[in-house]
Amino acid sequence: SYFPHLVAGPILHHAEMMPQFAAGRFRPRVDDFAVGLSVFFIGLFKKVMLADQVAAYVDAPMKAATAGSVSFGDAWIGVLSYTLQIYFDFSGYSDMAIGLALMMGISFPLNFNSPYKADSLIEFWRRWHMTLSRFLRDYLYFPLGGNRKGPLRRYVNLLVTMVLGGLWHGASWNFVVWGALHGSVLAAERLWREFKPKHWGTLPAWLGTLLTFHIVVVGWVFFRAASFGDALSFLSGIARGAPDAAPMLTPMLLGLIVLGMMLHFMPRFTMQRAAMTVRAIPAAAVGLGAGVLILIVDAMRPEGVAPFIYYQF
Prior knowledge:
Elements: H1 14-22, H2 30-66, H3 72-103, H4 121-124, H5 130-141, H6 151-167, H7 173-195, H8 205-224, H9 228-240, H10 251-264, H11 270-279, H12 283-300
Helix pairs in contact: 2-3, 2-9, 2-10, 2-11, 2-12, 3-8, 3-9, 5-6, 6-7, 7-8, 8-9
């Protein structure tokens, strides 16, 4: 039997899985196993060497926000660290799930596609947790009427869908605000695209990416904070502009941020090209190499085992 316990995605649809079972895809092959092992290692590296490493730089500013004393520099370090942590933690989990399934001959859909490259929030949700975006669209947005009942109803449906998507993560006002923020910006972007003067053109891609990134970062404050008051305190620290006596930026954290951004902003189809390269290497060599790398990552990981962020939802 094949019943994986995937608490964080990819969210699978029976139409994707049943044809694979019917076609006899549920049989491991050497090349699939080699690629799957490589994808699993990439996910493990993201989780252990990036997400878990930056986690320590998130907790201290959040605790300071609870006490009402988070500084400008530490607030920015904390929220940017969490921005990397949640991406590498979640996409690492998804990569490991995809890799394990592929080892057994089953193909899962891609769940992340460099979301921080997006130049609009519409594009962000085409790249972030793509199977959840599809689920919300098919089982909430479309049943509510989608865009079939006029422009006003379309924007209302979009906002309701994202608020419910926020509540899916937990019964908290923080998640309501997070969903409402994304829903409002998504509606505003669609409204702008529909009614803006044609001669105004479009924003440069780099500016759109910068604006989208900061909107997402503000949303992550509500997503991570323990309470609504803590989120407001943290945002106050981000906007205060007061200099720091001793910001938490260390060479270790700077290196992690640079490495994380380099991995995130790799050229398109890098993973696909890497997979094709792996298929051309003898499976025994791939297995040996991946095994050695997994042991190295395990030896270098932080003390203790940090649970996946999405396990709490």
